[in-house]
Write a structure and sequence with these properties.
Low-confidence stretches: none
Shape: elongated
Number of strands: 8
Strand content: 5-15%
Radius of gyration: 24 Å
CATH class of the largest domain: Mainly Alpha
Order of helices and strands: HHHHHHHHHHHHEEEEHEEEHEH
Mean pLDDT: 94
Helix content: 40-55%
Number of domains: 2
Largest sheet: 8 strands, mixed
CATH topology of the largest domain: Endonuclease III, domain 1
Length: 347
């Protein structure tokens, strides 16, 4: 089984920029970007990231606001914040040298078992098995595991089986091979089973249950939230503030927010605020953003203020020039609004 997998990989090489050499920094960056992100979506961000931060020292020296702008649109923004923290640790405590053993890599903020194993294996050829979603799918199908893969017991079983398959003479090549195999051959939908070099030993194929494996537990219903954004303007200024670190979109900027438990009229929303509004541009329609565990419905109302004393001194919003707004990182739902209403807002 292992030999067939390795032969498939030699015949089907997958070209990815971080595979060209064993640079641990580049591998770490790629693995963090690809958490919860498809390769096709993550590649442009990887290239942009490496162009701006070619070394761990350049990353450590940046500001969080600048990094969030580079990351804007990729989602899961705590990944970027954790990367910045870890880059500074590497520079300060490791003299800029990326830690070279699994345990030290695992201590970096935002690095879990998978990422630590990936860096240890791909950069340093350590015999650590790497188990991502592709590997979970391949192993589950090979051994016809029909228990939910998101339970601790099944996760451990899959890890143990993958570890048994691991080629300890060349762990890096094996780990990349099985991950690529899952991405290209043993796909989530419409896997190419007929031409699969492992179908002779794939229990799911023999049983005719490939499309039923892997099995996941029931998903929890997503929380629905309603965001009503007042977009305050005064002359050539807009007003924004950074979102709370305890909530979604930590570190990104937003306009004046009123959140409600249910869909609400703007007349009701406006009763909840105490700002000297002298005019409004009118309601701009609804925007929707679906996150992993939440669905955000957002509406926007551009308004003109008489003065900014309350919004700045009491509510802690920051005035910025309209033409500077593209220097700030916003959640996708706000970015879509800004793109749609650039003319109205004179951006």
């Amino acid at each position: 089984m292992r030999n067939a997998l390795l032969q498939w990989s030699r015949e089907n090489p997958r070209s990815l920029p971080w595979k060209k050499d064993k640079n641990p920094y580049q591998i770490w960056v790629s693995e963090i970007i690809l958490q919860q992100t498809r390769v096709e979506q993550g590649l442009p961000y990887y290239h942009r990231f490496m162009e701006r931060y070619p070394t761990v020292e350049t990353l450590a020296a940046t500001s969080e606001d600048e990094l969030m702008k580079i990351w804007e649109g990729l989602g899961y923004y705590r990944r970027a914040q954790h990367m910045l923290h870890s880059a500074r640790i590497i520079v300060e405590q490791y003299n800029g040298e990326f830690p070279s053993n699994y345990e030290d890599i695992l201590r970096l903020k935002g690095v879990g078992d998978y990422t630590a194993a990936a860096v240890a294996s791909f950069a340093f050829d350590l015999p650590q098995v790497v188990v991502d979603g592709n590997v979970i799918r391949v192993v589950s199908r090979l051994f016809a595991i029909q228990d939910p893969v998101d339970t601790r017991a099944t996760s451990q079983r899959i890890y143990d089986l993958a570890n048994q398959l691991l080629d300890r003479n060349d762990p890096s090549f094996f780990n990349q091979a099985i991950m690529d195999f899952g991405a290209l051959q043993c796909r989530p939908a419409n896997p190419d089973c007929i031409s699969c070099p492992l179908n002779f030993s794939c229990t799911s194929f023999q049983k005719g249950i490939v499309n039923l494996v892997p099995l996941k537990g029931k998903k929890k219903a997503k929380k629905i939230r309603y965001f009503y954004y007042i977009v305050p303007t005064l002359g050539n200024k807009l007003y924004v503030r950074k979102r709370d670190k305890a909530d979604i979109w930590s570190g990104l900027f937003e306009f004046y927010l009123i959140e409600t438990n249910n869909e609400t009229s703007w007349s009701t929303v406006l009763k909840k605020i105490d700002l000297p509004i002298i005019s409004s541009e009118g309601w701009t329609g609804r925007y929707k953003q679906t996150l992993s565990h939440q669905i955000i419905h957002a509406e926007f109302l551009p308004v003109e203020l008489k003065d900014d004393r309350l919004i700045v001194e009491r509510d802690d919003y920051t005035p910025i020039k309209r033409k500077k707004i593209r220097n700030f990182a916003f959640p996708k739902v706000i970015d879509c609004f800004l793109r749609d209403k650039a003319v109205i807002l004179n951006l």
